C-alpha cells in the first residue's frame, strides 16, 4: 500500500479561476488608482530588512521554451517590467548568442555593428540584408569614428564596385556627441537628437572612439517603457535556462554572454541532479542568482532552498501543452502546489529571516489567472501559452482552418509546442526530457495575440482592476488580505452571460 493517500483533492489553478474560486471584493479607497497599484515582486531571495537584488516591476516571466522566448521576446519582456528566460533546448553557443543579442541593447544606447572605410559596398549590402539594419557607423582600426553609411548612400547595382569610403557621409559633416557630455543620460541624447533634426546620434569618446549610437525611435520607445528592467549599465535584464546535463559548459557560456539570472529547467527539481547543478553554479559563479525547480511540495521547496536556490519554481503537470500527469502519473494541481509551497516559504522566512520567492510556472490561461496565482501565494508567475501568440516569439503567424460550432472558420494562430514534445527534442542536445523515449508534451496552436506591448498593457489593466476591487494595492497585500471563495455550480452559471441572446460581433 502507498505510504499515504491524500484525500483532499489537489486543485488546478484554472479550476480555481475557472468558476471554482473567486476573489471577494475588499474595501477600495479613493487613493487606490491604477498608478498606485503595485504589481512588482522580488524574484531572488533577500534577508529581512534588505532589498532583493532583482525585483521585477511586473511579476511575470516568459517560459524557457523554443516557441516562446528568444532574444526578441526577452527584450520585450524586460521592456514591460518582466523577464524573459531564454530556452536551453538548443546548442550552448546558440543560447549564448541570444543572451548577447539581448545585452547588446542598452535601453536606447546601442553598440552597433561597424564597417571600415575599406569595406566593399557589397559587404554592407550583405550585412544589411542579414541583420535588417540600415545604418552602419564607419570606424578605423582603432575604433575612431570616420563616418556613417546608410542604405540611402548607395545604389545596389551602380555602386557595387565601390568601397564604403567612396559613399559614406564623413564624420566632419555629422552631429556627434561626447560621452562625458551625455553622461549616459537618454534625456540629454534625446535633446540633441531633437535640436539636430536627426534620427540617430553617435556618441564618441574625446579621442573620437565610437561608444554607442542612440536612435531616436529607441529613445522614444524607452520613454514609453518606464517599468523596463535594466542592469547597472542600462542593458535589459535576461534570464538563461540551464539543464542538468551540460550545465558546466552552459553556465559558463551564458554567464559570459551576460545572463543576469539562471533557471535550472527540469520537470522534477527534487533530485540529486538539480542539487549538483545548483551547488556547481553557486560555487563557480557565486554572484549569479539561480532559480531552481520545479517542485510541488514543501519538501521539494526546503530541499532546493537548503542547497542555495535563490527562488523556487513550482509546477508539475499544469502546463497547457503538458501530458506529464497522463503519461507517468506524477504531478499535482497547480493551485494546491502554490498553497503548500507558499506556506513553506512563510515558515522558512519566520525561522531564518530569509524570504525565498516562489514562481508559479504553468497554467496561466487568461490575465485573471495571474492575479489568482499571486493571491494564492505566488510572488511571480511564469507563462508560456499566455505569451505564445505574441509577435515577439520565435514562431510565425499562420492562417489555420478550424471547425467551430460546426462551421469552417479561418483563424490566425501561432504554433506552440512543449519542451517535452517530439518536435522540441529534435533540437535538444541534452535536457530535461531528453532521456525519455516517450513525449511529455504536445505540439499545438494558440490564437494570434498581436504585440506583446498591447497584450500586456491589457493584462496589466485587468490585473490592477481586479486587485483594487479585491481591496489590495500590491502582491504582498494579495498574500495577506485577499479572500477567495469557492463558487457553487449555480453561481458559476450566474457569473457568466446567461438568459440573453448574444449578438455575434
Ligand atoms: P503554460 O503557460 O500553461 O503553457 O505552461 C508553460 C510551462 O509548462 C513551462 O514554463 C514549463 O514549465 C512547462 N512545460 C514546457 N514544456 C513542457 C512539456 O513538454 N511538458 C510538460 N511541461 C512543459
Question: How would you sum up this structure, described in words?
Answer:
There is one protein chain. The chain has 19 helices and 25 strands. The protein is globular. It is an alpha/beta fold and 505 residues long. The longest helix has 19 residues, at 334-352. The strands form 7 sheets. The chain has an 8-stranded parallel barrel with strand order 5-6-15-16-17-18-20-21, surrounded by 7 helices. The protein has a 5-stranded mixed β-sheet with strand order 7-8-14-13-12. The chain starts with 12 loop residues before the first helix and ends in a 10-residue tail after the last helix. It has 2 domains: 13-105 and 228-392 and 449-494, Alpha-Beta Barrel (TIM Barrel), CATH 3.20.20; 109-223, Roll (CBS-domain), CATH 3.10.580.10. Helix content is 35%, strand content 20%. Bound molecules: inosinic acid (IMP). Inosinic acid binds next to β21 and α15. Inosinic acid (IMP) is lined by residues 63, 65, 267, 315, 319-322, 324, 361-364, 382-386, 418-421, 440-441.
Structure summarized in a few sentences:
The protein is of the alpha/beta class.
Amino acid at each position: 500500500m502507498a505510504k499515504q493517500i491524500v484525500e483532499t483533492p489537489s486543485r488546478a489553478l484554472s479550476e480555481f479561476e475557472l468558476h471554482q474560486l473567486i476573489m471577494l471584493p475588499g474595501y477600495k479607497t479613493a487613493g487606490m488608482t491604477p498608478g498606485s497599484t503595485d504589481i512588482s515582486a522580488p524574484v531572488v531571495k533577500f534577508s529581512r530588512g534588505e532589498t532583493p537584488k532583482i525585483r521585477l516591476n511586473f511579476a511575470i516571466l516568459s517560459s524557457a521554451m523554443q516557441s516562446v522566448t528568444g532574444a526578441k521576446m526577452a527584450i520585450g519582456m524586460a521592456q514591460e517590467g518582466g523577464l524573459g528566460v531564454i530556452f536551453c533546448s538548443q546548442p550552448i553557443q546558440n543560447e549564448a548568442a541570444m543572451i548577447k543579442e539581448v545585452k547588446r541593447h542598452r535601453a536606447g544606447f546601442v553598440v552597433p555593428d561597424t564597417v571600415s572605410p575599406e569595406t566593399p559596398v557589397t559587404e554592407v549590402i550583405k550585412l544589411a540584408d542579414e541583420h535588417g539594419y540600415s545604418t552602419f557607423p564607419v570606424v578605423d582600426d582603432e575604433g575612431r569614428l570616420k563616418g556613417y553609411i546608410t542604405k540611402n548612400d548607395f545604389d545596389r547595382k551602380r555602386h557595387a564596385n565601390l568601397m564604403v569610403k567612396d559613399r559614406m557621409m564623413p564624420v566632419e559633416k555629422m552631429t556627434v556627441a561626447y560621452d562625458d557630455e551625455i553622461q549616459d543620460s537618454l534625456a540629454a541624447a534625446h535633446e540633441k537628437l531633437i535640436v539636430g533634426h536627426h534620427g540617430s546620434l553617435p556618441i564618441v569618446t574625446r579621442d573620437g572612439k565610437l561608444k554607442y549610437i542612440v536612435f531616436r525611435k529607441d529613445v522614444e520607445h524607452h520613454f514609453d517603457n518606464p517599468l523596463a528592467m535594466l542592469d547597472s549599465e542600462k542593458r535589459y535584464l535576461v534570464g538563461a535556462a540551464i539543464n542538468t546535463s551540460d550545465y558546466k559548459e552552459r553556465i559558463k557560456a551564458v554567464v559570459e554572454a551576460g545572463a543576469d539570472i539562471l533557471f535550472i529547467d527540469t520537470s522534477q527539481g527534487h533530485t540529486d541532479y538539480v542539487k549538483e547543478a545548483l551547488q556547481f553554479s553557486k560555487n563557480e559563479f557565486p554572484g549569479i542568482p539561480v532559480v531552481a525547480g520545479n517542485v510541488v511540495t514543501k519538501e521539494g521547496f526546503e530541499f532546493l532552498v537548503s542547497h542555495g536556490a535563490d527562488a523556487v519554481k513550482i509546477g508539475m503537470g499544469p502546463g497547457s501543452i503538458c501530458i506529464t500527469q497522463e503519461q507517468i502519473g506524477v504531478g499535482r494541481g497547480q493551485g494546491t502546489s502554490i498553497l503548500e509551497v507558499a506556506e513553506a516559504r512563510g515558515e522558512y522566512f519566520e525561522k531564518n529571516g530569509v524570504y525565498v520567492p516562489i514562481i508559479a510556472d504553468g497554467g496561466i490561461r487568461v490575465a485573471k489567472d495571474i492575479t489568482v496565482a499571486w493571491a494564492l501565494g505566488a510572488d511571480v508567475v511564469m507563462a508560456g501559452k499566455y505569451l505564445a501568440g505574441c509577435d515577439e516569439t520565435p514562431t510565425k503567424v499562420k492562417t489555420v482552418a478550424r471547425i467551430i460550432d460546426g462551421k469552417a472558420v479561418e483563424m490566425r494562430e501561432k504554433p506552440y509546442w512543449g519542451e517535452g514534445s517530439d518536435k522540441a527534442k529534435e533540437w535538444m542536445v541534452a535536457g530535461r526530457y531528453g532521456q525519455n523515449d516517450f513525449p511529455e508534451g504536445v505540439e499545438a496552436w494558440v490564437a494570434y495575440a498581436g504585440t506583446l506591448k498591447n497584450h500586456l498593457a491589457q493584462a496589466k489593466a485587468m490585473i490592477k482592476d481586479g486587485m483594487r476591487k479585491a481591496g489590495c494595492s500590491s502582491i504582498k497585500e494579495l498574500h495577506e488580505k485577499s479572500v477567495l471563495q469557492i463558487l457553487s455550480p449555480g453561481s458559476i452559471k450566474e457569473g457568466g452571460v446567461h438568459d440573453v441572446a448574444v449578438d455575434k460581433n
